[in-house]
Amino acid sequence: MHQLEVDIPASFNFASTVRRNIFGIGDVKVLGTAEAPVVARAFWIADEPIGVRIRVDKQAEKLIMETEDEKGAKQLLPLVRHWLDLDTDYEMAMSRLCQDPVLKPVVHALRGLHLQRDVDSFCCLVRMMVGQQVNVAFATTLTNRLIQLVGHKVDIGCETLDVFPKASDVARLSVDTLRTLQFSERKAQYIVNLAKMVADGQIDLSANNLDWMEDEDLITYLCQIRGVGRWTAQCCALFSLRRPDIFPAQDVGLLDAIGRLCGGVRPSIEQAADMAEAWSPYRSYAAHILWCSRRHLETGGNSPE
């Protein structure tokens, strides 16, 4: 087993971050205890899936990563940093968001919580397509069915992980095959079409192509894909492409979260977008805090006064 270490910022709480793996996707497993979790997960490196086990040291100053793949070990570092958003200055972002009296209580309640980002934009877009107009539980079920059908497997220690498929794997599926997994006709068409576009080079989701684009140009580029509207494109920019200032104001969950924090009155899309202007240039982090605030309150967190 090959071991790597990476320093983590004081603002980062590994346990609280990985406990909020709300999607329950099969290539991430949270093991250990709530206070000392160990994550087993998979990453694609050079077209091969690699398993890694991740925990923090006793001083909570370093991430300890263990893998059985010697060749891919060093290439894991930037992927893990991307996944756990370790290169963002959370102290600065949260300090800015705390200036807003609506956000301040939940920012404090959720301190240490980092975004978990998709390291692959194809995976992110598929997840967002699957999640359109269905609840999180059913979206998770559908995603895991897709993974089990055409995904890969990799072992790390005693754990076997299902690995999210590559675009080329999904492109070989028929719409009828996805229909047997309870995907809607239209959703199955969108996912197969996206996979074929990526596999055939009709759309380039690489960081080299997307990173230089301005936010609105990026959203326009992604929206040329059938089944990708503004919400899906914004969520991909936020959850995969590390854009710090994205706010999907039409998201029902965000509108509900703002309503709960503002006396129970849900704002309109326009009102939410206007409110979010005050959170720039960290609107992505405000959105994340708001999404997580719903679960915090539903699972016994105190309602902010």
Task: Detail the topology: elements first, then pairings.
Layout: E1 2-7, H1 14-19, E2 28-32, E3 37-45, E4 48-56, E5 62-67, H2 76-83, H3 90-97, H4 104-109, H5 121-131, H6 136-150, E6 152-156, E7 159-163, H7 167-171, H8 175-179, H9 185-199, H10 207-210, H11 215-222, H12 230-239, H13 252-261, H14 269-276, H15 283-298
Helix pairs in contact: 5-6, 5-9, 5-12, 11-12, 13-15
Helix content: 40-55%
Number of domains: 3
Characterize the main sheet: 5 strands, antiparallel
Strand order of the largest sheet: 1-5-4-3-2
CATH H level, superfamily name of the largest domain: Hypothetical protein, domain 2
Q: What structural class do the secondary elements suggest?
A: alpha+beta
What series of H and E elements makes up the topology?
EHEEEEHHHHHEEHHHHHHHHH
Mean pLDDT: 90
Low-confidence stretches: none
Compute the number of strand runs: 7
- CATH class category name of the largest domain: Mainly Alpha
Sum up the overall morphology in one term: globular
> In percent terms, what proportion of residues is strand?
5-15%
Determine Rg (CA atoms, Å): 19 Å
State the end-to-end CA separation. 49 Å
CATH architecture of the largest domain: Orthogonal Bundle
Query: Count the helices. How many?
Result: 15
- Please name the CATH topology of the largest domain: Endonuclease III, domain 1
Domain HhH-GPD: 130-295
GO molecular function: alkylated DNA binding; DNA-3-methyladenine glycosylase activity; DNA-7-methylguanine glycosylase activity
EC number: 3.2.2.21
Enzyme class: hydrolase
